[in-house]
Amino acid sequence: MDDQFKYPPNREAQSAARVRALEALLIEKGVITDKTVDTVLGYFETKMGPFNGAKIVARAWVDPDFKARLVADTPAAIAELGLGEGMAGAEGEHMRAVANAPGVHNLIICTLCSCYPWPVLGLPPYWYKDPTFRSRAAREPRAVLEEFGLGISTDIEVKVWDSSAQIRWFVVPERPAGTEGLSEAELAALVSPESMMGVALVQPAA
Ligand code: FE
Question: Three-state SS for 11?
């Protein structure tokens, strides 16, 4: 079982080489141009990414009514923020927010593959697609969170949300104490992608 999922130590270099070869071949065949990949990458650097999720979370922290709407109808609430193109398309159609609360900690996974709310979190990190992470996070989420450095005490319920083509979850983490004086933009700067996946908490500004 372990061997089945073992990665070669140079997996990143291998993946990069494969991508470069594929890109060159697709350009040679005239399927894409030499600009296509850069355009797509630029999209995920400037339009779709965790900076959107951070703005959404910060708004939820300062506006409880927005937070309630966000949990009740996530795409409609996000549309209120005017975050620009892409919020509704490309894997954004079925986004659902779940909010951490005292006594409840949420974790998002995709046991089948790597479904993820692209518009608000960007592309998933490598480990999110790891078969071992996917199966273990469903089976023993507390142990996995512990390995992320996030110990959840036993009086707090851990809820695991399994994303799919129908529903793509993200977490609204709790606002850290001591952030009362911060602006919405300053709050957004505290919100990490990991906190919106549920593998970390938001830390107060140093
Ligand atoms: Fe998936």
Answer: helix
pTM of the model: 0.88
Distance 20 CA to ligand 1 centre (A): 24
Q: Please check whether residue 175 lies inside any domain of the structure.
A: yes
* Ligand 1 centroid, distance to 115 Cα (angstroms): 3
6, 41, 148 from 77: Cα distances, Å:
41, 27, 31
- Tally of structural domains, the chain: 2
Q: Torsions phi, psi of 106, nearest 5? A: -105, 145
pLDDT: is 4 or 45 the higher one? 45
CB of 95 within 8 A of CB of 74? Answer: yes
CA 80 to centroid of ligand 1, rounded, Å = 27
Active site residues: 110, 113-115
pLDDT digits (tens, 9 = 90+) for 21-37: 999 999 999 999 989 98
How many Å apart are CA 134 and CA 130, to the nearest integer? 6
